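USER: Fancy drafting a protein?

ASSISTANT:
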Amino acid sequence: MLGCSSEDLETVSETVNSSHSSMSSDSCTSFSRLSFDALELLPHPRPLFSPENVTLKPHRSSESSWQAIRSMVLKRNGSEGLGGVEGTSLSFRDFSLVRQIGSGDIGKVYLCRLRNEDVDTTRSYYAMKVVDREVLALKKKTQRAATEKKILNMLDHPFLPSLYAQFEASHFSCVVMEYCSGGDLHSLRHTQPRKRFSLSAARFYAAEVLVALEYLHMLGIIYRDLKPENVLVRSDGHIMLTDFDLSLCSDAIPAVQSHSLSSSSSPDLPLSSPAVPRPPSSHFSCLPSQLFRSKKIQSFSATKRLFVAEPVTARSCSFVGTHEYVAPEVASGRSHGNAVDWWALGIFIYEMVYGCTPFAGVSNEVTLRNIVKKPLKFPTVSTISSRETQARDLISKLLDKDPENRFGSKRGAADIKTHPFFNGLNFALIRSATPPVIPQQKTTSSRQFGGPASSFDFF
C-alpha cells in the first residue's frame, strides 16, 4: 500500500549509480482524492515521452492492445492535423477506470480501458498504475518510482511488462501497462490440490521466471523482489514479472565463457570489446575464419560455450525485499549483489513444490534469524521421484547461504539452465509451450501489482 510514514528515517546510498532511497513504515494514506472526472477540469498536462510514439516493440506487434493504443493516437493526430504518431501522446482523458485491482507500497493499480474505443472492436483492457507524487515525497520514495519507470521503459520481453503510455495528471503520475487476467501464482497455487503445484508445473513456471531474470540481469537489473505474488499470469497462461520499484540498476558486461572450464581458469571474453573478436563456431559458419585471428580464441570454440551477462560487480547495502524471500546476506545486514535473485528463485521453487517457504517463522524477526542460521530441510517422505530429487538438488544449490558459492552467482542463468531439473526443456521455445493452467477469460477478480503486508523496504 501507499501512504505516509510516522517519521522520516536515515537515508543511505546505493553503491551502484549513486541512487538514493529511504525507509518508511506501513502506509496510512489512500487514493481517496483520485477522481479522473474531476481532473477533466484541469488544463491538458504537458505530454511526457510515451511508448505509443516510438517503434513498436517486436514481441507485441500483433496484439490488439497495442493496435488499439496506436489507432487511438493516429486518430487523435488526424483530428488535430498532425501526421504520424509522433505528434501527441495519450493522457488521462483517453482512459476510463473500471475498478481497482491491486495496490503496492508506492501506488495503486486500476483496470482501465480506452474511453472512445470503437464499439465494433473487441475492447482492450489495461492496467494503470497511479502514484501520488506528494505522498512519495513525504515517504522519500520518489527515487523508487523513478527507478521503476526507468526500468519499464527499458523492457521488451514476453515475460515482462509492456509499457503502453505514461502521463501526469495533477499530482498523480500514471503508467499504463498490459493487464494480466489470470491473477498471480500465489493465488493460483491455492487453487491446486494440497495448495502446491505439480513438479512439471513448478518446472514450467520456474523456467519462465528464470528466462525473465536472465533478461533483467543482462540489462544490469537486479530484481530483488521475486515472490509468487509478483509473478502474474497472462490470459494465455504464461507469466509476467511485475513490480520493479525495489530493483537495483547496475551494469552487466556480456561475455562468452567455456562451460567445461571454471571462470578462474578461463577468462571472460567480452563480446562488446573491439579488441577481442567473437570466437568462431559452426553456428557462425557464414563468417570467414580470417576474422578470428587469435588461435587461443579459435581453440576456445572447441569447448561448449555459454553466453553470460551477469551483473556480478553490483553491490548494495539496502535492506529490501519480502522477509521470507530475502537472502542471508540481506537478513544479516551485509552488502548484497546479483546472488539475491538466485536465492529468491530457490525459495520460489520450494514454495511451488511444497506449498510453503522453508524458513518462515512465527514473526518476521524469527524468519530472518532462520534464514541466516537454520539449515535447509525438506519434508520427510518415504520415497521421492527422480524429478523431485533433481528439484531438491537445484533448490539446495540455490539456497547456499554463502553468496560466493551460490548456484548462479558467477554465471547466472547460463549455469542454472544446465541443471538436470530442466533436462528436456527447450528454453528458446518455452514461449510456445503449453502452460499448465490456462485462465478463464474474465476481468472481474484479478490482482495486479500488489504486495502482501509482510513486504518491507528498509534502506
About this structure: Residues 255-308 form one domain. The CA atoms of residues 100 and 110 lie 4 Å apart.
